[in-house]
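cache lookup: miss for this entity combination. No prior model stored, computing from scratch. Input as submitted by user K.M.:
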Amino acid sequence: MRPTAGSAYRLGVLRWLLIGVLVWPAAGRAQSFDPAELIERVERSLRGDTVRMRAEMRITTPRWTRVVEFSSWDDRAGDRSFIRILSPRKDRGTGFLRVQGTFWTWLPRVERTLRIPPSMMLQSWMGSDFTNDDLARESSLSEDYSARSLGGREREGTRAWGVELTPHADAPVVWARVEAWIEPETLAPLSLLYYDEPDPGRFELLRELRFSDVRPVQGRAFPHTWLMLPRDKPGHSTEMHIVSSVFDEPFDEALFTQEHLRRATGVR
Amino acid sequence: MLGRLAWRNLGRNRRRTGLTAAAGAFAALLMMLALALARGSHEYWIDQSVRLYPGHVRLALAGYEEHGTLEYGMRLSPALRSALDALPGSVGWAPRLETWGLAVQDADGSLGRGAWIVGVDPERERELTRLFDGLGSAELPEPGAPGAVLGADLARALGVRTGESILLLTGDYYGSQAAERFRVTGTLSVGDPRFDERAVLTHVGDMQAFLDAGRTVSHVVLFAPTGERADDLARELSASLPGGYEILTWPELVPDLLQMLLLDDAGNWLSLSILVVVVGFGLLNTVLMSVLERRREFGTLRALGMRPRAVFGLVLIESLLLTSAGIAAGLAIAVPLLLVLERNPIPLTGEQLAAAVETYHLDPVLVFDLSAAQLLGTSAVLLVVALMAALPPALRAARGQPREAMREPT
Amino acid sequence: MSALFRIAWRNLLRGWRRSAVVLASIVVGLTACFGILAWTVGLGHNGIDLAVRTHLAHLAIHARGYHADSSTDRRIPGDGAAVLSAVEREGLGAAAPRLVGDGLVQTARRNLSAVIVGVDAARESRVSSVPDSLVEGAYLDAAAHRWASRLPPIVVGEEMARRLGAEVGDKLVLRVPGDAGAGAFRVRGIYRSGSSAFDRSFVYVTLADAQTLFALGNAVTEIALLLSDAADAPQVQKRLRGLLAAEPPLEVLRWDERQPRLAQMIELMDQFSWVFYAVVFAAMAFGIANALLMSVYERIREFGLLRSMGLRGSRILLLVLVESFLLTGLGTGIGLGLAVPLVAWLGEVGIGMGWFSQALGEYGFSDRIYPELRPGDFPEPIGMAAATALLAGLWPALRAARLRPAEALRHV
């Protein structure tokens, strides 16, 4: 066991941008890569130090399909996040606040803030194939796993770099292995594959997260569509479209407070 | 010839005959009472357990038993309703919409308790189940004004009383967060921790609105007139519906009840065989004694030229006649007695018993139930026992030396 | 009086076949009664024992209010060392500290709610049977940390392992409420306590690992006490309350106060077994009465003779009653002589109840019943046997006493 908080990411926004600009073209042309560094870079390019997003999440099950819209503020450095639901109408105004390991939700219908117990944390978030935990991103690919290169390979018509991630022995994560496939030119992620190990040495794909619709945002190649496919639930999928995203802007401290959570005017 | 002799012998010593027949009658009476009690208590237990909540037959979508989630909920369409109403083997049905969630006291919203939230149709439950029997004067949830009946232990843990309100938090039909405020209309205690510590019972209509579930219910439970008729009802139901449903009967719904009944059956068989042995000794005793008493008589018969085999047969026939008369007498007492007992169970008393009954809400009664098969079975078993009990005395009578027996004073 | 006994004894011996048959039915009935009684007692004890020895213990010390609202917020002040040493100094019984809290056990495929129990392995094995009930792997011994991996060890129940699809050596993630978050563990052992309900929710880690997981420093929530004799619980409870009065608010509760349902269920079973005794005794009484009655009729001439010799009716009444008592006494003696070794033997080997293990498990019983009789179980059936003899002998005795000598002598 180890503290889940605590991170090595204290880089200033400018410094990060500078490094990114300098390193990127060089990395793109390289024939080999450092897997750990690559994963760290991909993770950072997806989340930045902070990121504010607006997204539409289309949830498909064999029986129904629906769309959930939300805004999110993710402060990776401060290990906290905030989400506000915009639609559908029934859920509008519902808020989620995480500060380190503790979660609260604001329920506009009963006008109450509740602390979410861990049993509910592992359930699907808003009916999607993402769990609360996925969104809270308590676990981190670069912190909890060790990386090994799988080399370059042709995947679905494009060349990709593969990284095999094996969890550190004491990391509190359930996956036995995660595979990351990355586009070598732009360093945009293509897919993440999550495996279980039912018997020693036999790995079974349980879910797959596919990234597409890559467009540059603030100097990074950012995938605007994330498709989660749970392999053990045929007919179920969740597709998240990121409508807008702003990286590395400093957040107001007041954002991550229960007062803000309670304020339905926080809907933007 | 032997039969007539046996009959005359019985008539000659009325007192002995009366005593032996009385032993048979008493044995028959006791066995029938014990069997009827075993049968009655089984039916009673099944009835009590099944009527607490599970039902005789449960109808759900295929896969519900394994997953138990709202995803496997079924739409209670008008067509399905009328199909359920039309079943001849059913005495009624009740819809339920179940899910797990969090119950939180309204006042300060501190971390709540895990709750089993169940939408029911209170009127149908009142009629068909004993779920609300322990409710006392509290109101049932009315549709429209979200109300809930809480398990007493849950209410205590949350620190809420009747009239106050709680918040329920759970995932709705689409898996998104649903929260609602419910007024506590009462608490209930049925002696089962699943209910007392976790249950929140609301009106199924409110629950559907709360979960954005339209007309979806988790399952429907159906009731047959008796536990034994559950299979017939399940067959009728399955014949009247298209495929894609999952129909389970109470032994599958409450497997531990079935095992408890089997365990009790084993105990009953043990008790009954002990009873048969004790009763058999009683019969053996009387027949043996009547043989011992009549050594002179048998000696005379032998001296008159009757063969040992005939004496053996005579004793056996006497014994069978006696036992049959006894059984007939036993039946004559047992049947009316049991008919009365069937309608008027015997109440049990005792301080600890009262406490246990308070907890489990089972009526402290001995319930009897009589079946023709049991009457015939008991009679047959007793005849066999009588025959076996008569063997040693009959052998004795047959083996007696004529002269020796006659010389012996009584 | 002794003359009466002699005559009664001689009468019984004279009709030895008749006596033997009556005796046999008493012996069978009584042996059966004691057998059933022992089974009921064994079943009850089994339920109590299972619950007490797996987790409940005879007595438990908590922070005040824990019984009403069990949460890790209610902790025994300090690390419980003061309470532990007080208990041990007084030699009250075996004691073990625990940190008990709710959490989740997580694998890639499933999440299950669990009761997480942090224990001091050495002390725990003195108050709980779980350390000795492993079906696979090993308990949380000192070497566990160095075993196979750096992950801290966890011991789970068979039913939970089955539901998770986990085996010894597999990794599990535990998650608890609050800031502490989560920790990875490796399955060190799988236990089977005998109660499936227990085995699907209780998991064990070392006390230190639990304290880290819950981020609770050196806190404990419970001190469990196992006594050498369950019957001492009320006295020890009283003494402990006195001893701990100086400590900050603590509560000391007995197992039957924490689990009143279990105690009530056992009472209920006792009550129902009495219905059965009543039926067997009724059958027995009828057999005895019948035999005595018959022997009285058989000896009408004899009684008539005794009457005409000047013996009063009351003496004859007494004579028949004494015969009845002698028979019952002898039968009871032989019945006990058979039942006690039988029960002792069954208590040794146990009666397998594999068929019904699910039902028994649901109700917190183990699948092997060890019949037993306590000294307090004997007086009631013996008393009932004596009452039976009295009642069964009364009618024939009255008949014999009321005989008119002349009529009796004329009787063939």
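stored under new cache key. Chain B has a mean pLDDT of 81.
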